[in-house]
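This part of the workshop introduces the protein records we will be handling. As an example, a complete record with its sequence and its structure tokens follows.
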Amino acid sequence: MINFQKIKTAKATLAAVVALLEEPVKTKDEIEAILNSIGDGICVINLNKEIIFFNEAMEEIIGWQREEALGNSCYNVLRLTDETGQKNICRDGCPLFELLKYGRVVPLGKPYCITHKSGKIVPVADSMALVKSEKGETIGAVYVFSDDTQRRKREKISNDFISIASHQLKTPLISVRWFIELLMEGKTGELNKTQKDYLLQIYKSNFKLIKLVDGLLNISRLESGRVGVLSELTCIEDLIGEAVGEMESRAKMKKVRLVFEKPAKLTSIMADARLLKQIIENLIGNAIDYNKENGSVIVTIKVGSKDATIAIADTGVGISKEQRKKIFGKFFRGETAARVNPEGSGLGLYIVQIMLDLCGGKIWFESEEGRGTTFYVSIPRQ
């Protein structure tokens, strides 16, 4: 028997619920009794997207009574939105369609919300999966929701503090760099070799701190929605070429061969060129920094009817299986990566993922430890 009291996350609850629903020995009454005892909201829908089960916790989260919800469309009842409540996720990016497309557990990922019957926007942590019959046929899907209001409030307080602290730190750090440069240029008198060496180490440490503060400020702007997306017709191959050109000196310093296999036919897409270029540069920078001496970074692009997919392949250290799930986390750094490049902040991939969310894009990767990694970025053409 599954002990639901010990399950701590929506994703773990989801896996347990799917196992329970597919267990043939349970009667309908037994299943309903167990699901009603769970603290997370549970909603089961059929292939027609009609709600066929609604537990008591779900009634509390969303304000609909079970009798009202049963037989109703999940779109009408759940009304998934983004955090602003303005974007209708069910209409503009149906998670059920994504589930049926990939056929596996789908954490909804972005900070989604449910619209309460009263109109109130309720932040939720959520996940969903297919439900199959004894014959292995898909018969519906199950959503698991938990109220995420308090966690997001704590997260906002934390992010606000980081933003304020970063702003307050940047000005004195820039002043310190200015005074170090004056000393190194001999403006206050000649320095001996030892003094110059010490100042150089201070200058490098100061530069790392400024870079970290810039990263934190960038995250603060992205997470707070202060970064607008300006889509315009952009030649994707020329944009990649510019990014590669600006990274060539960095590649030469690291003795890494950087190549862009530019196709003969050029393609224009609707995209925010500024954000997309930063995404590409961040990924190329990582591919260079975590590469081996005399290694290579190959950038390619494949354009389809609906999207353009950029691939950035390196011959570097790779990512271990144990660390792949954490790779896009804020401040996360793998053990091998930290050894190869101790100066990294662990913010690059986190920033890339936020930017891609803003652009409506996706990112994934393939990696073999010790042999290299390929990151893929998919951007809608429209």
